[in-house]
Design a protein that fits this description.
By secondary structure, the chain is mainly alpha-helical. It has a domain of 241 residues. 66% of the residues lie in helices and 0% in strands. It contains 13 helices and no strands. α11 crosses α13. The radius of gyration is 22 Å and the shape is globular.
Length: 393
């Protein structure tokens, strides 16, 4: 985990392998929302087939709750590290969304009647507070998953067996897939959060099992064996795409609303997630050392929530710049102003390579904003410290 410090530059993660894994995960989130500018193995292992379960797997790796855990203290800690950033980032993105819409529409949009209740309903169902902060749904789900897991571990910790519980969680996970495929997520809107918790619980336990029982064995494998594992996983997924009705059935889109399970097999999301997590975990273990001391990768890893929450807003800021150029300076060929005015998800695609600009601004924008925020916090902290009377010796 990131150590606490006034300066963002001195934050650091001691576990460099998982630092890099989480940085890669958030990079994939941004890349997927540009419709894959960089295409990291997605022909064989699509991002949407594993990356959100991988974040839960990473959380499980660092999770150490047990029967002796003080639930009150643990809950307050998770509220501070998950819900507080969620609320702050969502509010900031709402402000940015208001300004962006004002700029692109040329007028201030009135807030609809009952909007606050609408937002609260979305937060406790889909987990989304506003459209530009859609990816933040994961934070609410992660908080709920960790709370349910901590409560179960508190009650059953003395008789807890990770392998038995993994089997139980897997059955529940498969039941969720069957339910949403049979009934449809629209009919389960008020059950989405508990169902997502059940969907993610096995990956939390997998992270714990990996840490406690498998990491040592995995790390000690030779480079040749690791390359062999990765090759087998790629070939395995390639064969799956051949017998599924559609190649992309190995993935599952829109997991925030438990939609997009197009595969006819309820085991597909579980298998796809395990394949993706194991592939990237092995790759990071194999080649991670050259970049393990990278300050930039460390900073990305420490600020995944900022990237997750702000990158869509920064995509739209780039679109605002393109729209201004198009309307006041020179024609931006094929820039669809009307489409942009109607959607926060518009991407200009004159050339395929321009999508990389969205990835760059989607990562550097939020990180730059976080750097400015840290500077302001540090400055205010110093001013407050100077004005606070010091106790006499």
């Amino acid at each position: 985990m990131c150590s606490i410090g006034l300066m963002a530059e001195i934050r650091s993660k001691s576990n460099k392998k998982f630092m890099l894994l989480s940085a890669l995960g958030i990079f994939m989130v941004v890349d997927s929302h540009t419709w894959t500018a960089f295409n990291l193995f997605i022909s064989f292992i699509p991002y949407n087939s594993f990356f959100m379960p991988m974040f839960v797997f990473i959380s499980g790796y660092f999770n150490k709750v047990g029967s002796d855990t003080r639930l009150g203290k643990y809950t307050l800690k998770k509220m501070k590290t998950l819900l507080l950033p969620y609320a702050g980032i969502s509010l900031a993105v709402f402000g940015l969304q208001f300004l962006i819409n004002w700029f692109k529409l040329g007028e201030i949009q009135p807030v609809p009647s009952g909007y606050l209740l609408y937002v609260l309903e979305n937060v406790i169902t889909t987990g989304t507070s506003n459209s530009m902060a859609t990816p933040m749904w994961f934070v609410i789900t992660l908080f709920a998953t960790l709370m349910i897991y901590a409560l179960m571990k508190k009650l059953l910790g003395k008789v807890w067996n990770s392998y038995v519980m993994l089997a139980v969680f897997t059955c529940l996970h498969l039941g969720v897939i069957y339910l949403v495929k049979t009934v449809g997520p629209e009919a389960l809107i008020y059950w989405l959060l508990p169902l997502k918790v059940l969907f993610f619980l096995p990956f939390l336990e997998m992270g714990i099992i990996y840490r406690d029982h498998l990491e040592g064995l995995h790390t000690k494998l030779t480079g040749g064996v690791k390359i062999g594992i990765m090759t087998v996983l790629l070939l395995f997924n390639m064969s799956r795409t051949m017998y599924l009705p559609n190649a992309y059935d190995v993935a599952f889109d829109d997991i925030g609303e438990l939609a997009g399970f197009t595969s006819p097999y309820i085991v597909t999301p579980l298998i796809s997630s395990i394949v993706g997590i194991l592939f990237w975990l092995t790759l990071v273990d194999l080649i991670g050392k050259p970049v393990q001391e990278s300050r930039f990768v460390n900073y990305m890893s420490c600020n995944t929530f900022w990237i997750m929450g702000f990158h869509i807003a920064f995509f739209n800021i780039l679109n605002c710049i393109l729209m201004f150029i198009n309307e006041h300076i020179v024609d931006v060929l094929y820039f669809d102003t009307e489409f942009f005015k109607e959607s926060e998800w518009y991407r200009w695609e004159l050339v395929d390579g321009f999508k990389m600009a969205y990835v760059v601004i989607g990562i550097l924008g939020p990180l730059g904003l976080k750097w400015v925020f840290d500077k302001l916090v540090m400055t205010v902290g110093k001013l407050f410290k100077k004005k606070t009377p010091q106790p006499q010796a």
